[in-house]
Every structure is written in C-alpha cells, then in structure tokens.
Amino acid sequence: MKTTRLVPARIAASAGALRLLLAVGAWLGAGATGMRGQAGSRIKAPAMADAGVFWLAPDKADRAAARDRLSLYDLPVLGLVEVLREVPAYPADPPRGRLDRAHRNADGTVHPFTVLVPDGYRPDRDWPVRVWLHGGIGRPAWTETGGWWRDHQRVADPERIVVLPASWNESRWWQESQVESLAAILDELAREYRIDRNRVHMLGVSDGGTGVYYHAARAATPWASFLAFIGHAAVLSNPRLGVDGQIYVTNLRNRPLFIVNGGRDRLYPTSSVEPFIQLFRDNDVPFIYRPQPEAGHDLSWISEEAARIDSFTIANPRDPLPDRVEWEAEGAASGRFAWVSIDEIGDVPGQSDLPGRNELTVDGRQGEYLAFPHRLPSGRLEAVREGNSVRVLTDRVARFRVFVSPDEFELSRPIRIQVNGRVVHDAVVEPSAPTLLARAEQDRDRTSLFVAEIEIDLRP
User: Fold this and answer.
1) 342 near 248, Cβ under 8 Å?
2) What's the rounded Cα separation, in Å, for the pair 417 and 427?
3) Are residues 57 and 182 located together in one domain of the fold?
4) Are residues 374 and 274 located together in one domain of the fold?
C-alpha cells in the first residue's frame, strides 16, 4: 500500500460552521498583529467586492480575474473562506415572471429552459428551488419556446423559484449532457437570484420521473431530494435507450426519494414498480412511496398529494457534509459525491467485500434478476466521519480523495483516515488558498467550499 499524498483543495458549509466562525473571529479580532492584523479590516471590503464578482459576474473571464485578485489578498485561508461564504450583493430588481432562456453545453448543444420567478421575489432571503423534468422526451429538439411544459401555472409557486429544463431524443434525462446542462443552469440561476443551495429539489413526471432516478444514482451532490412521479427506474436498465453510465442502488441511499405511481398506469403500473420499491426497502434507501390505486399515467392525484410533497421538501434540506457517505462508480467521471471522490477503479490487497445491492425480489425469489446491468467493473466505498477520524471501507477502489472542510474537521489537529482496518493517513492538514479558490471555481457553490483534499492511494 502506498502512502497518502496531500493535495490542497475544498470546504463545505453545514451546522459545523461555528468552529469556522470562531476561528475567523479570532483572526479578525484583537489577536491579529503586524501587517496582517492591520490589513484585516482594510482588506475585507475590497475582497468582498471581488468575491461578489467571482460568484455573480455573467462573464467567465471576469470571474476568473476576480479569482486571481482574491488570491493576492493578504488573508489567512479561513479569512478567505469567510469572504467567499458571505452573501454577495444580488441585483435588487432582477427579471421576474416567466423567463425563457438557453444554455450551450461544451459540445455546442443548446439546452433551452424556462424559469418562473415569483413576483414577490426579493434578495433579502434565500429562495428554495424546484427543478421539474418533463415527460415525452422521445421526440426531436424543441422548436416552440417553453413547449415542453404544457401548463406553466400548474407548477408556478409564490414561495419558490421553479426551473423547467428541456429534454429530447438527442439529450435525454439519463445522459451526461443533461447532468452538464442542469449544473450550468443552477449556476446561472445562482448568479442572478439568491437561491438556497441546500433546498434545490428535483421533481420529474413520466420520462422525467425516470430521469430523477438517474440523477439520484449518478450526480446527487447538488440536490436536496428527488421526487419521481409516474416514472420507472427499470427504464434505466434498457440498453436501447442510450443511458450513459451504470446505475447503482448504493448511490440512492444518500438522498431521500418521494415516489408516486398509479395502479392503472398503462406504462408503469404499481405492480411493475413494486419489485423496485422492495429493492429500495431491502437496501435501506430513504423513500416515501405513495401508490395511487385508481390513477393512470397522469397527475390526477397531484392536488391531494400537494401538502405531503411540500412537507417532504421542507423536511429534507440538503446536508452538504453528511457524516456518512456511500458511493459507487465505474470511473472518475462519476466518482464524486459530497466530500469523497473515487478516482481509480481496481482490486487492491486487503479490500472489503461489500454486499451487493442489485438483486430484485420477484414472486418471493431473490437473486434471479438484477435490477441494472453492469457491463463495466465498478468501485465502491463507504465512509463514516466522527470528529477528526474517518473510517472507510472500499471494494475495488484503487485511489480516492477525501475533501477537507473546516466545518467538519479541526485543522489544528491530525486527521486520521482508516481504510479497510488500516490507518493510511494521520497528520495535520495544511489549508491552501489557491486550492480553495480552484475548487470553488469548479463547484460554483458558496455553501460548499473545501480547503484541502487528501489523496489516498491503495495500490501496492
């Protein structure tokens, strides 16, 4: 087993922020001396202005220039974290109502989307967001603006910002193009409106409901919860539908699900969905299942369930730094969740034999059917943090990283990481401002910042 290598990189916001605030308060208070102490109050105002540009400027070059200026301030790393964490000066009177927009992916594909901003929006508080994925995606690209959602007022909400992205046969909900586009849409929204990054919920109908399962299993980090209406996870096992990557039930254990299906649904009746419901139950996936015995492939039940849906989203804000994480991936491209990242797959000495989570129970028999085909080898890890200690079990993972947050770790003390019963790291981690800025630029989430990352190499 090789030794660990420390690579500075990240931090994230949670209830543990008190430790960070006390540390920064000590720096800003009477204890600071010399040039750095004198500079504290003078530096903070211009640094805050540059942080506002870093988070809010629409032009990427302007944001990069602000990042470079932030790196030049004579601030300790925790002081820079505080500056980045502050709420920037959002526009006081941004556009409201229905806004039709589009995002261009790196490959040039244009993804249209509609935003519904309440008339009462004001930037004096954080606003929750609901992102609705529509059905009927087996058609050509949309030419009618907003035509992918028939009744905008049905999902408009005076207390939330609503996003209605588009999907079609060349960019389906279960493809990486949509993961890229949705992340960019949230980033664009956060540059103009004061959204609550820990209350961004994904909801989907029909094909959109199926897409909800995909994002929960492949790209769960930005989302607080997932609500799947009249969709079916089994669709993601169909090799003819162009599903990118592999689906892992393990990954569904990280965020709560709210599932609704109809008993008379001609496409996905409850009788066909319930083996997957049992699979989720057997594997301790957190979910609420609300079958509608008399409903077809429709939303005739939505008004009766509206209060439960609201209660579910209110009760389930995102925890960006959960004490326990589990993740499985076939490669580094999908290896990230929260504060861990699988970087390389491969067998290593002393690895754990973690139980499988892919076997359906059909007619009382388990093991005869797999829920999702896995054509490529995958790696999986389970990590539990207690104070400054992290216990990790890995199965076919050769390399991974732990992202370090001062909200969760005391940076003055050693961080101890035990993998498969063996201590692989036990040392103080030095926070890095360049890494903090680099990771913040990549993640684009001021509530989830990291000051360092620890790379664990398990190869012999």
Assistant:
1) no
2) 9
3) no
4) no
Which of 284, 315, 346 is the endpoint of a domain?
Answer: 315
Angle between helices 34-56 and 17-28 (to 10 degrees): 130
CB atoms < 10 A from the CB of 386, how many?
Answer: 10
Return the closest-CA partner of residue 446 out of 184, 55, 76.
Answer: 55
Note whether residue 3 is domain-resident: no
- Residue ranges making up the domain that contains 63: 18-85
CB 85 within 8 A of CB 33: no
Length of the chain: 460
For residue range 292-349, list pLDDT tens digits in order.
999 999 999 999 999 999 999 999 999 999 999 999 999 999 999 999 999 999 999 9
Name residue 209's amino acid.
G
Output the furthest CA–CA distance in the chain (Å, rounded).
75
CA distances from 366 to 196, 277, 289 (A): 42, 14, 21
Q: Identify whether residues 39 and 186 lie together within a single domain.
A: no
Helix (H) or strand (E) holding 51: helix 34-56
Q: Please, which residues bridge with residue 389 across strands?
A: 386, 416
Q: Classify burial at 58, counting beta carbons within 10 Å of its beta carbon; exposed 0-12, middle 13-18, buried 19 or more.
A: exposed
Query: What is the tally of structural domains in the chain?
Result: 3
- DSSP result, 255-321: S-EEEE-BTT-SSS-HHHHHHHHHHHHHTT--EEE--BTT--SS-TTHHHHHHHHHHHHHH----SS
CA distances in angstroms from 186 to 62, 130, 195, 260, 447, listed in the order given:
19, 11, 9, 26, 14
**Residue at 34: amino acid letter:** G
SS (H, E, C) 248-266: CHHHHHCCCEEEECECCCC
CA distances to 249, 384, 393 from 322, in Å: 18, 9, 16
The pTM assigned to this predicted structure is: 0.90
Residues 361-374: pLDDT tens digits? 877 776 678 999 99
Q: How far is CA 215 from the centre of its chain?
A: 9
Are 267 and 403 within one domain?
no
Signed CA dihedral, 5, 11, 16, 17: sign only? positive
The answer to whether 189 and 115 are in contact (CB under 8 A) is yes
**Unique residue bearing structure tokens 């993972």:** 397
Q: Using CA atoms, how far apart are residues 6 and 385, in angstroms rounded to an integer?
A: 18
3-state SS, residue 245? coil
pLDDT recorded at residue 42: 67
The alpha carbon of residue 440 and the mean position of all alpha carbons in its chain are separated, in whole angstroms, by 14
Whether the Cβ atoms of residue 204 and residue 182 lie closer than 8 Å to each other: no
